[in-house]
Write a structure and sequence with these properties.
alpha+beta, 10-stranded mixed sheet
Length: 307
């Protein structure tokens, strides 16, 4: 079993409000240090991001992209534990079939608890991050949950409505004109739900709710799971089309998946996305360091190259 319990209250709140649940993944051998170190050892270059950061509170412009090079998974773990680093292993369910079985089990249980919760396009990623690391204010396109395996972190979740999240911001993310980060003001925190997440706990929040994360004073291992439903897909297509209509036609389109216009908009989105009419902005990251157990702070500079 993945979930220790799932109540009728949880079912009623799921997708509408923040839900915090107890899970067993921190007891699973798939997330032991040894297994994760082995996974890092063989993780494909095109499926991970390794980032170093300035001290907590610094803007993202101080972040740098790196590589693990020939360092072992143990070396990467130690560098993260003692430095200002994180590694994001994307699409873990594709890289290792054991995690595909795990994500199938997770969503199988959820759909058992909620028969009307029909999901597809599942995704699982693993994040190992340093003490004090932070994830900046941003929103995600699919439905998402955050699972804590090791360490503690503070999660701030904000309303998924203006001014915390605007339709133009969402449209730009979906069209690939910007990354997931969106405009943030410190006073937003007054309206955030703040949860201190510990091993064996997970959070699920309403679709697209902005959030940010602060690690507390220890190495953290976390999991993200993503999913789509028919309504999530409708919302995606609607905002995709609205972004086209706003930027190319100068319209101020309505944002509702219940409107009769949602299906024509899905056609517009498909034409642009799959018909080659909309070109996403290519985000080029330069890799300029690698992990090295013999170097200060566990990393050394290398000649920059495009990722």
């Amino acid at each position: 079993m993945i979930f220790k319990s799932f109540s009728e209250q949880d079912r009623k709140l799921w997708g509408k409000h923040i839900v915090q649940l107890q899970h067993t993944l921190h007891e699973n051998d798939l997330f032991s240090d040894e297994t994760l170190m082995d996974l890092i050892d063989r993780y494909p270059r095109d499926q991970y991001n390794l980032v170093t950061m300035a001290k907590p509170g610094a803007p993202k412009s101080f972040w740098r992209e790196g590589e693990k090079g020939n360092s072992s998974g143990e070396d990467v773990f130690k560098a993260i534990e003692n430095g200002q680093l994180w590694i994001n292993m994307r699409n873990t369910h594709i890289v290792d079939e054991r995690y595909q079985k795990l994500i199938d089990t997770i969503f199988g249980e959820l759909e058992g608890y909620m028969p009307d919760f029909k999901t597809f396009k599942h995704n699982l990623g693993i994040l190992v991050s340093s003490p004090g690391a932070q994830v900046f204010y941003h929103c995600d396109i699919p439905g998402q949950s955050l699972w804590q395996v090791r360490g503690k972190k503070k999660v701030y979740v904000y309303p998924n409505t203006a001014p915390f999240l605007t339709e133009p911001d969402m449209e730009k993310i979906i069209l690939g004109e910007t990354e997931e980060e969106i405009h943030y003001e410190p006073w937003y925190d007054e309206h955030a739900s703040v949860v201190e997440l510990e091993p064996g706990q997970m959070l699920h929040w309403p679709l697209n709710a902005p959030h940010r994360v602060e690690n507390l004073g220890m190495l953290n291992v976390s999991i993200t799971t993503e999913h789509y439903t028919k309504d999530v897909t409708k919302a995606y297509a609607m905002r995709y089309a609205n972004g086209i209509l706003r930027s190319r036609v100068g319209m101020n389109p309505a944002a509702s998946i219940d409107s009769p216009t949602v299906y024509p908009k899905m056609g517009i989105a498909a034409a642009f996305k799959y018909g080659g009419l909309q070109k996403k902005r290519a985000i080029q990251r330069m890799v300029d360091f690698r992990v090295s157990k013999d170097a200060p702070q566990g990393m050394e500079d290398i000649p920059a190259y495009a990722l």
